[in-house]
Amino acid sequence: MLTETDSHAWRGHDSSGTGGAPGPEPADGVGWCAWVVGDCWLWCRRTGTAVTWLGPVISWGTHAPLYACEECIRRLEEQVRTSPAHQDSVCWLWCQRGDVPLVRLAEVEHRDGTTVFYACEECIGRLKQKVLDLAMDKDTAKR
């Protein structure tokens, strides 16, 4: 489940109380965290692109850092600004479908208030699997 993907986390201030989930330091103390080359976890799913840390994704007792590219961050910000009546009409994750049941996934805090983040079960499953895969890779690397 997503936690603390708010504007403060995007800017490197982890106030989520996520029990020690890691968070990079902001670049030069202000703005988004430093940009790194990595994988975008949001819509484009590009690999080897410039991404920045948005916050931790926590699933099944483990966590992984959520990174996104500038294009997807802008899309997310636009979605946050969408009228509340339309926010629960489509999946906020990869499929963007509106013809499937949606689940309340997280609250996204931003400078204008709070927005509820909805996703379908299929995309939630994909997100959980991504977090578990990263946890397994970390565990294997420690051995």
What percentage of amino acids are in beta strands? 25-35%
**Helix-strand pattern, N to C?**
HEEEHHEEH
Q: Uncertain spans, ≥5 residues at pLDDT below 50?
A: 1-24, 26-31
Shape: globular
Strand order of the largest sheet: 1-2-3
Number of helices: 4
Nearest-integer average pLDDT: 74
How many strands, what sense, and barrel or not for the largest sheet? Answer: 3 strands, antiparallel
Gap between N and C termini: 27 Å
What topology does this entry show?
Layout: H1 7-10, E1 36-38, E2 49-59, E3 62-68, H2 70-81, H3 84-87, E4 102-110, E5 113-120, H4 121-142
Antiparallel strand pairs: 1-2, 2-3, 4-5
Task: Write up what this structure looks like.
The protein is of the alpha+beta class and 143 residues long. The protein is built from 4 helices and 5 strands. It has helices at residues 7-10, 70-81, 84-87, 121-142; strands at residues 36-38, 49-59, 62-68, 102-110, 113-120. The chain has a 3-stranded antiparallel sheet. Strands 4-5 form a two-stranded antiparallel ribbon. The longest helix is centred in the C-terminal third of the chain and has 22 residues, at 121-142. 31% of the residues are buried.
